[in-house]
Amino acid sequence: MRFAYGATRIVWLVGPYAIKVPRPRPIRPFVRLIQLLRNKQVGAQLRTYDENRALGALKYLLAGLRANRREFRISQGGLCSKYRLAPVIKQMAWGLIIVQERGLPLDSKTDLSDHPLWLEMVAEAKGEDPARKQFALFGTRPLLVDYANPELSVFDQAAGSR
């Protein structure tokens, strides 16, 4: 069993499965809030989650759960083959836990330029290298395993509201 950590979720890699749960970080939101207050950026940051700052704060605190639910909705929307996504096999506890098949990590030579979402991810990364760790090999095909990012606007209709 191995663990992988993202900004909003923990992934348990167990046998042939990847089990994603929201990352419990009870102190991080408060540390981040202090940083934003110091830089006078609270309102702008919370508005990235919702125009209403109170709802934005709630959505920020629930980001991991929202990411799981978004991936499940996208997966169930029939987009996995079109966009080469690793499907969510199971959702439990209203999205607290989702399960995907486990792929193999990419090596540095795996070409992602023909993946349907790679160019959008490159544009979203604003000149930085997009995270290759969001992909895994399933057989010989690289599939996107982390597609909850609301910046991937191609999924807005399938995922419902941001």
Précis, in short:
With 162 residues, the protein is α+β, with helices and mostly antiparallel strands. The protein has one domain (2-159).
Task: Describe this protein with a few key phrases.
34% helix; five-stranded antiparallel β-sheet; globular; alpha+beta
Question: How is the secondary structure organized here?
Answer:
Elements: E1 2-5, E2 9-14, E3 17-22, H1 28-38, H2 42-47, H3 53-61, H4 63-76, H5 80-83, E4 88-92, E5 97-101, H6 118-124, E6 135-138, E7 141-144, H7 156-159
Antiparallel strand pairs: 1-2, 2-3, 3-5, 4-5, 6-7
Explain how this protein is built.
The protein is of the alpha+beta class. The protein has one domain (2-159). Helices cover 34% and strands 21% of the residues. The chain has helices at 28-38, 42-47, 53-61, 63-76, 80-83, 118-124, 156-159, and strands spanning 2-5, 9-14, 17-22, 88-92, 97-101, 135-138, 141-144. The strands form 2 sheets. Strands 1-2-3-5-4 form a 5-stranded antiparallel beta sheet, covered by helices on one side. A hairpin with a 2-residue loop joins strand 2 (9-14) and strand 3 (17-22). The chain is globular.
Fraction of residues in helix? 25-40%
Distance between the termini: 32 Å
Count of individual beta strands: 7
Strand order of the largest sheet: 1-2-3-5-4
The percentage of residues in β strands lies in: 15-25%
Mean pLDDT: 85
Estimated structural class = alpha+beta
Q: Work out the radius of gyration.
A: 16 Å
Low-confidence stretches: none
Order of helices and strands: EEEHHHHHEEHEEH
Q: What coarse outline follows from CA principal-axis ratios? A: globular
Work out the count of structural domains.
1
Q: Can you summarize the main beta sheet? A: 5 strands, antiparallel
Treating each run of at least 4 consecutive H or I residues as one helix, how many helices? 7
